[in-house]
Amino acid sequence: MIPCCLVLLILAHFGCDSGTDKLPDSKESFDRRAMLQHWADQIIIPSYEHYNSKVTVLHVSTDQFTSSPSIENLMALRTAWKEAYLAWQWVSMYEIGKAEAINFRNFTNIFPTNTEGITKNIKSGNYNLELPSKFAEQGLPALDYLINGLGKDDQVVVNILGSVDYANYLTDLTSRLSNLSNEVLSDWKGGFRDRYIENSGSSGTSSVDKTVNDFMYDYEKFLRAGKIGIPAGVFSGSPIPKAVEARFSPGFSKELFLENLKASQDFFNGIAFGKDGEGVSLKSYLDHLGTEKDGAKLSDLINGQFDKSRETSGLVDSDFAKQVHQDNTQMLKLYDELQKNVILIKVDMMQALNIAVDYVDADGD
Amino acid sequence: MVKRVRRYLHKSTEAAPLAVFRILFALLMFISLVRFWSMGWISKFYIEPGFHFHYYGFDWVRPFGEFTYLLFVICGVSAVGVAIGWKYRLSIVLFFLSFTYIELLDKTTYLNHYYFVSVLSFLLIFLPANAYFSVDAYRTKDLSYQYVKSWHIDLIKLFLGMVYFYAGLAKLNHDWLFEALPLKIWLPSKSSVPILGGILHDEWAAFGFSWAGMLYDLFIPFLLLSRRIRPFAFVLVVIFHLMTRILFPIGMFPYIMIVSTLIYFSPAFHRRLLASLSRLLRLDFAIFDNGRHYVETGKLKVKFIFVFLLFQLAFPFRFMLAPGNLFWTEEGYRFSWRVMLMDKTGYANFKIVDKNTGIQFYVNNSDFLTPFQEKQMSTQADFVLEYGQYLGQYFKSKGQVTDPAVYVESYVSLNGKGSKLFVRPDLDLMQVNQKYQHHHLIIPFNEYKHYSAY
Predict the structure, then answer these.
(1) A346 lies in which domain range?
(2) What is the pLDDT of residue A285?
(3) What residues of chain B lie within 8 A of the CB of A349, using their CB?
(4) Which of B362, B379, B410 would you mutate first to test chain A, the one with the most A CBs within 10 A?
(5) Is the omega angle on the peptide bond into residue B249 within 30 degrees of 0, that is, cis?
(6) Same domain as A164, residue A107
(7) Are residues A186 and A106 in the same domain?
(8) Domain end position, chosen among A145, A169, A199
(9) What would the pLDDT profile of B368-398 be if each residue is shown by its tens digit?
(10) Is B237 in the A-facing interface, judged by CB distances under 8 Å?
(11) How many domains does the structure of chain A reveal?
(12) ipTM score above 0.95
């Protein structure tokens, strides 16, 4: 009854007010549900499957190493770790549902890792990795320390890491990574996928709003600040080379950065995981709404800025720690380029899509 | 003329509408407070944040830690006191003071609705709203009157009408009328709303809603005044406010407005309402009908209210004293019934520079502000200034910086027109006087067309 009255009311007003013969373009409503479905089935779940397979391999490699410690098995373990770390860059931004509930990101990739705490845990054999206070003593950065940071000579590393205490801790870390990943993936494959897609509304707790906020948060806090800004001393006044991601694997930090950057851009463009070609996405949503800024398509500007960041990183050494040490200005330049996209995404895009920045639970006017 | 005014001021009317208004308004206030509490907002907005944004001149208003809950208890109990008309004068004064104090705690939570409640409860202090159908009137025959002055009720009608009319005036601007902004941004994302959802993505829906909203606000007070049109007008009131409730996260306000507009109805209507209520409560309604007339002593009160009304009429126009685009600077934006008028998104990045050592670094806002505070801060210049100065003092007191300069790099997008540099990035906020007006801080929004009627 009420809606009918309102429609009549609007029609009446509209009839009076528009003397022109041309009605504004009527267009199809953007299908948010289809976007969520594409995200879940083509991007998020495949990314988790990929990551899950990599941490499974990592755990198997750990078992092989601990049962027969050797340089060869250490090398295999390192390779498995690298692949898992690269795969992680494709899932870190989806901190929603189970991942959010279990603090997936914090238990997996908090760096710089706390080497003292790790050593203490190993020596005492007494630790509870489920405590939030142990974020920095586990996960992929802690593994970096164990497999790459215990000594320059590989045989020395094998000897230490092969000892019972270290081997136990190593196993605990990889099995925990694998368990957490399993938990998140099985939740997605269980009921969560459907609930995620069903929640296609536009409230602060809807899937679109939450996913975009998570995407933004990951870009801002982990890609821009964590990987680049903090080591470059943006928040502290002086560079902190030790704060780079994977600090015990010189040269790997940039690879991880580029992977995460690509994952972010691919998500924006709706590229199915491991495939080519774009699907329903934030980009197509913006284009559907015809969002422009200063006469250019906003989606083009955002993609241009992703590209510009990648281009700028070309001038940065593959070892971020070395770069901030020798010439921090290049790092700061990269930071500035990343920062520009924060504004395009967080201010321009989120306004256009009517998504509140950070879910705020309060009344409006 | 003077004679006519005098005659009007002496005119009497039944007190029933005022009693109904008192009961329903206070009851809704009580429900609002309970809702606020149950949402966990007392802690979230007033106790947890380490920093609060103050209104100029109200720095001394501070939350009381855990005792802030007590403030809400006082406010809630006094609302009940008002509703049942028990120790009415004390209750309404307490309600006004506690409610207003809560609103002054942090301007992050500013809503026109809250200001509306403060002003209305202030006016109620001066009205004999307990004259009829109240515990006071029931217990003390001296306080019981069947008739009050017409102006007691007309005052509320006038204020309500003013709020609507000014909200309508504010909509007479280029963006709202000719670009259907911000509704063109807000509505398409609501396409999952039942029934209506299907049309909301259409541009004409945004235009229809914009114009309908503007016409509604401007004309509803007059429609409600006419006895013939009133029932139809009330249907409009209900539809309009329920629509806003469905489409936007707007809290209790729609209900408050729907209930408040009942005051426009006739005394007979209100008597019927009270009669049913009496049956429900098994009260003897007739004892309030004592034929007594409330006598207004002291001319000072009438004069004071008159001056207060003049102030209310003039205050929303103060933005004219400041240069620049009102929506961009928001100088004179608050306390002016500009409701759901624009969409602003912003981002502010603060840089601390030690003037002695040259060391500089950026601030992580979430270390100091809640997401809500950060959201409000990033689009409003007075927030940026207050927070910037707080940061400078904070890092100085921590010994991290000896002589701080604070700069902000901030971008704001207004109504989807694209992010632009907002506060002047070359300004050391530590050197800026708090009294500085917004437009001194802000880069003007020149190209932007804004033809506001007021």
Answers:
(1) 201-356
(2) 96
(3) none
(4) B362
(5) no
(6) yes
(7) yes
(8) A199
(9) 999 999 999 999 999 999 999 999 999 999 9
(10) no
(11) 2
(12) no
